[in-house]
Prior knowledge:
This protein is α+β, with helices and mostly antiparallel strands. The chain has helices at residues 3-10, 24-34, 54-63, 84-92, 95-101, 111-134, 149-155, 201-207, 209-212, 226-235, 238-254; strands at 46-51, 75-82, 137-141, 162-172.
Amino acid sequence: MNEILKILNNRMSLRKYQNKPISEEHLEQLLHSTMRAPTAGNMMLYSILIIKDKDKIKKLSETCDNQAFIAKAPLVLIFLADMQRWSDYLHYCDIEKFCEEKGMKYNGANNADLFLSISDTMIAAQNAVIAGESLGIGSCYIGDIMENYEIHKEIFHLPDKVFPIGMLCLGYYPENIKRTVQSRFDKKYIVFNEKYKRLSNEDFNDMYDHLNKKFNHNNSFEAKNIGQLVYSKKFGAPFFKEMERSVNVIMEHWNR
């Protein structure tokens, strides 16, 4: 494998970091590579918040589902799906008058824009992850930044057309760390030729076989299988209900 493929195949989520700041040189290289990510129409429908302030990072460790390791991260990047900048620029370009003269209806930022900006944002975030890995900087995605929207909106002065969709904790890999790369499902259950395939019960039995062999039936959730355990830990958990509530509030603001 070439070096890029090695990075892609050996990357892991890092939750323990060296106790030192990321150098400005590395940060600039990382950000430059991030902003070279593919983007719809070269519009770059995202913004990035650099968070170094320890108090803010500690607050994020609390608002993002009380994950203590976040507070130890030397650097946090918050990735924002951002239609506010384009909305403001179109207003600057007198778009309302232009549409009136051309007999066109002017539509503000809508749900299609939201989905497109989310795509732009997370593509850029993944560029940051890979750039960081190449510099010896590990990372961990935090989807919980979508929780507690009102708090984050106030802390970071977010306008209505800006949505915190992803967050990265970043720091240098500790010396002599043992890499543990998590297994993935077999390609035949994820990648399909020409058309989508719904999986059968037999497919699921085979797909989850490697996890079923390690399944602990004496778990605290009293779950009888992997699906029940994942639902209890994720989809049915209080943090996920808060995320759903928060996203609904975000949508209300987005569609104003």
